[in-house]
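queue> pop job 88
queue> type: inverse folding (structure -> sequence)
queue> payload:
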């Protein structure tokens, strides 16, 4: 059984405080010390624009300061990873979420039941090929990140909120698309998992067929030995032996591959010629590491 040792965690922590972005350090501390999670809200306000959306490179591979749905999804992911939920009564959190979902529902029209993850102005700033504004955007992104945004809405916002009711109206079309889809990318599966978790916490009837679909697709990928982030895709899912094995293999590789400098690195490239990619790689050291910590903590992979 793979476990991150106390010594390894201490080495990683020292490097995080030296090299990571403030938002990633805040999230790191929130995961290890939940009483400090409000600092995540403080940091996110630095990335939120007047329109309520997020930009300014919150998603490291997109240097656009303008708001976009994808960067806004990143903010919601960070809040959830910091263990915020609809029971939190912080006024700062409520204000931030209200502005966020006002941006999503009132400033971004749905296209076939989904939000466009990117904006045209991305093309005016340094960015990876993934965030280029092109005509085939929905072919590239599929249900991601719309499904995840809906899931985070149900996890973070009280049921009596107006945006909760708006989100409920999107459940049938999103569920229909999910059940009709035969295959999913890794990002779509991560999004699907969050959608499932949001449905499950409120006992929506759609949670059962969505859960069955998620498990079936993941098991098929596991049997084909496809290399995806199984721990993130399986969060709060009742897992079968084949998925349990894949999760264990993922953590074994994660811990074994920890570099000597004690921060994990992002392996993919921008597939563009922007020189800013080099500085982005440095920022990813902290971002990837804190995402790994979240999963290690969730699956009880930290030495006691």
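queue> result:
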């Amino acid at each position: 059984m793979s476990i991150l040792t106390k010594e390894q965690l201490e080495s990683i922590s020292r490097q995080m405080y030296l090299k990571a972005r403030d938002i990633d350090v805040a999230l790191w501390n929130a995961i290890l010390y939940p009483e400090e999670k409000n600092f995540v809200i403080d940091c996110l306000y630095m990335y939120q624009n007047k329109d309520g959306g997020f930009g300014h490179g919150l998603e490291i591979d997109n240097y656009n300061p303008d708001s976009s749905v994808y960067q806004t999804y990143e903010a919601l992911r960070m809040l959830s990873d910091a263990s915020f939920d609809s029971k939190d009564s912080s006024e700062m959190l409520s204000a931030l979420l209200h502005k966020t979902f006002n941006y999503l529902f009132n400033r971004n029209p749905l296209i076939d039941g989904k939000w466009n993850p990117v904006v045209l102005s991305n093309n005016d700033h340094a960015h990876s090929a993934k965030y280029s504004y092109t005509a085939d955007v929905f072919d590239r992104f599929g249900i991601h990140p719309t499904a995840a945004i809906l899931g985070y809405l149900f996890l973070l916002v009280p049921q009596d909120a107006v945006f909760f009711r708006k989100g409920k109206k999107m459940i049938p079309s999103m569920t229909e698309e999910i059940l009709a889809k035969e295959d999913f990318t890794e990002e779509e599966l991560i999004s699907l998992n969050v959608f499932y978790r949001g449905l499950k916490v409120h006992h929506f009837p759609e949670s059962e067929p969505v859960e069955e679909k998620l498990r079936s697709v993941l098991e098929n990928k596991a049997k084909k030995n496809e290399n995806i982030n199984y721990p993130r895709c399986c969060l709060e899912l009742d897992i079968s032996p084949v998925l349990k094995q894949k999760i264990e293999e993922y953590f074994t590789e994660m811990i074994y591959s920890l570099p000597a400098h004690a921060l994990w690195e992002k392996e993919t490239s921008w597939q563009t010629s922007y020189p800013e990619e080099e500085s982005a790689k440095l920022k990813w050291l902290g971002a990837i590491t804190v995402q790994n910590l979240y999963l290690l903590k969730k699956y009880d992979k930290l030495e006691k």
